[in-house]
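Handout for the seminar on molecular recognition.
Each group receives one record of this type.
Step one: identify the two inputs.
Step two: read the structure output and locate the region that could contact 1,3-dihydroxyacetonephosphate.
Step three: write two sentences on what you found, then compare them with the reference statements printed after the record.
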Amino acid sequence: MTRSTRAAMDGGLRATARRLVTGGRGILAADESVRTMSSRLEDAGVPASAQQRCAYRELLVTAPGLAEGVSGVILCEETLRQHLADGRSFPDGIAGLGMLPGIKVDTGTAPLAGAPGETVTTGLDGLPDRVGEYAALGARFAKWRAVFVVADDLPSPWAIRTGAHALARYAADCQAAGLVPVVEPEVLADGGHPLDRTAAVTARVLAAVATALADAGVDPAGMVLKPNMVTAGAGASVRTPADVARATVEVLRATVPDDLAGVAFLSGGWSSATAAANLAAIRELPAPWPTTFSFGRALVNPALHTWRGDPGAVSAAQEALLVEVRRNTATTRAAA
Ligand code: 13P
């Protein structure tokens, strides 16, 4: 690649990354794997099939006016290759509706040898070819999730190193293919640990990820970071949104570069109300990067449970999604 081609590609990546996190909008994560989506459908009383997964994702992305609050939609590979009722592919349809189509490129987690109770995210083999194909199918950005558990002496240094290393390799592969990486290191909220412990673990994880990304030559301005908010464990007493916001911004400021395109938080299994309140408090604090949402469950759960596979409930389900999007978009705008 010539130097000018590289510069043009970097400029395009930076513009796409900025578009994902600015303008008061955030990212809709609708990229559950076939297995996870099937079990969520079944929990909602919907028989799982490729058609039902497609119908549900179509309901989400075609919610009227979704693009007012959503900049991009993360899909799983199955959906990337499916089509809307009007015949357009999902990526074409999403782009036509004014949003950026994205794709989850990791292939899930597997036990990490040498680290009992911990996992490593899989999917690096063949990734350069896959991301090239996803870009050709219309994807503009790509997500990879690394998961870290908090327990007595976990996460281990080895799990942090391997997780950070994989995130950096994936992010470099994405930028080389012209896709914006959405880098997701998630410290799970499972457990009864206090907020200070989440802060210490998140700081160790983010510092390792920042070092690995720099080692791999990843352009911070051409990527989005998708971290957990720094909360107490789900089994501990809840802390106020102001506490969560202060700890979250402090940890991020101490560990990640100022020139990141932006930070888009995951919701981590917290209720829609809790995730929105914490995000609103984060947005009130000064930070060098735009902060917004890249929520899955906190945006889509009410819609799924309103729909339950009933074609007559599509409009009500779409409205349930829009209520959650507006709640988070409004906080983003209010603080912008
Ligand atoms: P949650 O917001 O439900 O945590 O999901 C975000 C996500 O993309 C998980 O990989």
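Reference statements: The radius of gyration is 19 Å. Residues 3-333 form a domain with the TIM Barrel fold (CATH 3.20.20.70).
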